[in-house]
């Protein structure tokens, strides 16, 4: 059956392949039970691609990503590729996908499921009901700024350089996404930078302030320094709704926010570009957790972040809100029934495997959809 939902599946390395296979089962369930067909192709990425194809992402795979309606990615990386040169490392594939697909808006929701309120390292009352969104700028800043490299200054003395830079339009477009998202949530944006120290921080604050004045003055806006934000996230996280920040601070603060929810294994993400003339918006969806080499291949990984990344794909790339909600509901129910993978279980609880968790979600999909 042909389909207008062309998905490129990139399982990648480590637990990426294991958690992805649970999503493929859900896609199969959907085509059987919901008559939704996906046109799925699968390719190598990361270390797996480096080993077989000589680079962490081949030009053909990159082209296929650009031609698809959405990309679903597992995880990349592992210690066996630590000594590979930087532009061929597994992480370079991620950075290339983000840049060439122009996925400037990275949505990292941190939601605490009631059933997991005790898994967080913070007291349950601080995080119960938490629902915040870190919006990270993903295609600029110090991750891509030039010049960069290591140069020789004199004998025995070298200098390493990274460059942090942001333009007006780069800040405006991420700011707009942040304000628009906040309007559909609790209408509050916290813009995070280091305006007290950095040129880019001062500039970021100025651009966000004038954008707010011009187009979004009905949204509550606060500014916060990144170090204070890290502290506030663990002190009183419920003060936040949408946090909008640059590439590097977003990387750091999203790991911090993730842990509030109890486990990195619970967090999905969406990376989005802008809508083009044909109405298409490029999107890549991936769990926030990495490839977890320590538990890879052992059927222990938590597939829920990957499954919820797929739910985000349905929502943001295909406007399938009902199906997206159905999957989120199934995940919630499975957790309420007490199923726990290793990463979210308490000491006295028994852990289920990756496959058992995946099967439980499908079982629950049958129940919630009345099949
Ligand atoms: C992330 C990761 C990546 C990043 C790495 C793997 C390149 O930490 O997506 O947060 O730094 O962006
Ligand atoms: Mg990170």
What does this entry show, briefly?
Helix content is 41%, strand content 18%. The chain has 371 residues and is an alpha/beta fold.
Tally of separate helices = 12
- Ions, cofactors, ligands: which are bound? 3-isopropylmalic acid, magnesium ion
Element string (H = helix, E = strand): EHEHHEHEHEEEHEHEHEHEEHHH
Overall average pLDDT: 95
Q: Mind telling me the CATH class of the largest domain?
A: Alpha Beta
Biggest sheet, in brief? Answer: 10 strands, mixed
Give the % helix.
40-55%
- Distance between termini? 23 Å
The strands making up the biggest β-sheet line up spatially as 2-1-3-12-11-4-5-10-8-9
CATH superfamily of the largest domain: Isopropylmalate Dehydrogenase
Structural class: alpha/beta
Backbone CA Rg: 21 Å
> What oligomeric state is this?
single chain
Proportion of strand residues: 15-25%
At CATH's second level, what is the architecture of the largest domain? 3-Layer(aba) Sandwich
- How many distinct beta strands? 12
Runs in which pLDDT lies below 50 for 5 or more consecutive residues are none
Structurally, how many domains make up the residues?
2
What can you tell me about this protein's structure?
Helix 1 (15-33) packs across helix 10. The model has no long low-confidence stretch (mean pLDDT 95). The protein is globular. The protein has 371 residues and is an alpha/beta fold. The protein folds into two domains: 1-104 and 273-371, Isopropylmalate Dehydrogenase; 110-270, 3-Layer(aba) Sandwich (Isopropylmalate Dehydrogenase), CATH 3.40.718. The chain is built from twelve helices and twelve strands. It has helices at residues 15-33, 47-53, 59-67, 90-100, 124-127, 168-183, 199-215, 226-235, 247-260, 304-318, 321-336, 354-368, and strands at 6-12, 39-42, 70-75, 105-111, 131-137, 149-154, 157-161, 188-193, 220-225, 242-245, 268-272, 283-287. Helix content is 41%, strand content 18%. The strands form two sheets. A ten-stranded mixed beta sheet has the order 2-1-3-12-11-4-5-10-8-9, with helices on both faces. A two-stranded antiparallel ribbon has the order 6-7. The structure holds 3-isopropylmalic acid and magnesium ion.
């Amino acid at each position: 059956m042909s389909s207008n939902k062309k998905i490129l599946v990139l399982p990648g390395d480590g637990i990426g392949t294991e958690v992805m296979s649970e999503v493929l089962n859900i896609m199969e369930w959907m085509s059987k039970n919901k008559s939704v067909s996906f046109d799925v192709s699968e390719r190598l990425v990361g270390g797996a691609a480096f080993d077989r194809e000589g680079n962490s992402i081949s030009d053909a795979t990159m082209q296929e990503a650009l031609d698809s309606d959405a990309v679903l990615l597992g995880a990349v990386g592992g210690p066996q590729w630590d000594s590979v040169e930087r532009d061929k490392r597994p992480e370079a594939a991620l950075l290339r996908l983000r840049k060439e697909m122009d996925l400037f808006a990275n949505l990292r929701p941190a939601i605490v499921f009631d059933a997991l309120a005790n898994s967080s390292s913070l007291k349950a009352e601080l995080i119960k009901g938490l629902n915040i969104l870190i919006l990270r700028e993903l295609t600029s800043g110090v991750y891509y700024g030039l010049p960069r490299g290591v140069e020789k200054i004199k004998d025995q003395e070298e200098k390493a350089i990274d460059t942090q830079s942001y333009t007006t339009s780069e800040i405006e477009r991420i700011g707009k996404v942040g304000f628009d998202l906040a309007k559909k949530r609790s209408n509050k944006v916290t813009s995070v930078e280091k305006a007290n120290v950095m040129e880019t921080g001062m500039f970021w604050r100025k651009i966000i302030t004038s954008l707010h004045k011009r187009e979004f003055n009905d949204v509550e806006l606060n500014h916060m320094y990144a170090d204070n934000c890290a502290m506030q996230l663990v002190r009183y996280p419920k003060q936040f709704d949408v946090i909008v920040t640059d590439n590097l601070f977003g990387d750091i603060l999203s790991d911090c926010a993730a842990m509030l929810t109890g486990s990195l294994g619970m967090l999905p993400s969406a990376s989005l570009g802008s809508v083009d003339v044909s109405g298409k918006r490029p999107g890549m969806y991936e769990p926030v957790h990495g490839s977890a080499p320590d538990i890879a291949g052992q059927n222990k990984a938590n597939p829920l972040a990957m499954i919820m990344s797929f739910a985000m794909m349905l929502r943001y790339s295909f406007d399938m809100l009902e199906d997206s909600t159905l999957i989120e509901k199934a995940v919630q129910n499975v957790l309420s029934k007490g199923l726990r993978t290793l990463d979210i279980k308490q000491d006295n609880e028994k852990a289920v495997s990756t496959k058992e968790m995946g099967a439980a979600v499908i079982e629950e999909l049958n129940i919630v959809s009345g099949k």
